[in-house]
């Protein structure tokens, strides 16, 4: 299967849909939930910039380096954020899960953990990846804790790695899960979500 072939990934809490321009209104509303674009240590598009961000991600999809998704809650059918498989390296069978953001009301609900479970399953079981990376701002302690909780291991810190919109430099913390670790990580994610492996 092509690394960038559009696919719908469905779980009990969230459905990952191939990102499309039709998601604009719902994603603008999701970003307004908690005004999550105001967090200085992460990049969440302002509602007024959402159309440009969707176009940017779709252009990267066309270029073969990103598989972007919109996140839809299963309980009420509302869009609640975005995520991607990005920095796709088909030659070396590696991807990064990133450019993820969630509406405030979707945080700490299990939606993020289930989305990661679905993306990791697609990467390892369908695409045959040998490693999946996660990257986050050094100061984003909530994100770092969440990535560690998944079972990912820290590879290192890239210092002064990126220039942020406010002019500061981002130190990027790099984590990864390798293919041999995936069965244990999958079991851990099912445990975090409070379900048995045979339930899904």
From TrEMBL:
KW Transferase (keyword) present: yes
Domain N-acetyltransferase: from-to ranges: 14-153
UniProt xrefs under InterPro entries: Acyl_CoA_acyltransferase, GNAT_dom
Pfam family of the protein (one): Acetyltransf_3
Keywords noted in UniProt: Transferase
Superkingdom field: Bacteria
Gene Ontology molecular function terms on file: acyltransferase activity, transferring groups other than amino-acyl groups
Protein's recorded name: RimJ/RimL family protein N-acetyltransferase
UniProt lineage: Bacteria, Pseudomonadati, Pseudomonadota, Gammaproteobacteria, Enterobacterales
């Amino acid at each position: 299967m092509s690394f960038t072939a559009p696919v719908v990934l469905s779980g009990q809490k969230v459905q990952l849909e191939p990102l499309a321009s039709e998601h604009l209104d719902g994603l603008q509303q999701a970003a307004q939930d908690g005004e999550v674009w105001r967090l200085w240590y992460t990049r969440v598009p302002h509602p007024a910039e959402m159309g440009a961000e969707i176009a940017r991600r779709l252009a990267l999809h066309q270029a073969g380096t990103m598989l972007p998704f919109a996140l839809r809650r299963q309980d009420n059918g509302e869009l609640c954020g975005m995520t991607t498989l990005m920095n796709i390296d088909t030659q070396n069978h590696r991807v990064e899960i990133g450019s993820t953001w969630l509406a405030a009301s979707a945080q700490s609900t299990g939606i993020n953990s289930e989305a990661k479970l679905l993306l990791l399953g697609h990467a390892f079981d369908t695409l045959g990846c040998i490693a999946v990376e996660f990257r986050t701002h050094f100061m984003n302690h909530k994100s770092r804790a969440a990535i560690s909780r998944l079972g990912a291991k820290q590879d290192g810190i890239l210092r002064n790695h990126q220039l942020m919109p406010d002019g500061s430099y981002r130190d990027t913390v790099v984590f990864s899960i390798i293919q041999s670790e995936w069965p244990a990580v999958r079991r851990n994610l099912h445990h975090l979500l409070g379900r048995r492996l045979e339930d899904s």
